[in-house]
What does this fold into?
Amino acid sequence: MALKGPTEEEIRTILMPLMLSGAKMLDKHCPRCGSPLFEKDDKVFCPICEHRARQRKAEMRGIEERLMEKLTELANSLPEDLTELEKHLSVMEKIIGLLERYKRLEGGE
It folds into this structure.
């Protein structure tokens, strides 16, 4: 797998401000993405991997929020007809399954 270092935008928005804040860029690179490692407050870290992980978590939260909204919408509009109710409940069950998978993906349970 090829290493994917920082994009130009990540260099401008993450690495440059980090250097200006007093962090020290090391002559070592992240084994995961190839970006330079940094040291600040006696902690060595990859700012690019940390940034990308935060982005993924935010995206996951957005998806989870939309699924919860749909689940609430369905729960608040249960039909009287048994056939339609079964369809409604089936969709709700699938949404709950997706939510459980997302929680496992982000290490929530």
Remarks:
- Strands lie at 24-29, 36-40, 43-45.
- The two ends are 29 Å apart (CA to CA).
- The chain has a mean pLDDT of 87.
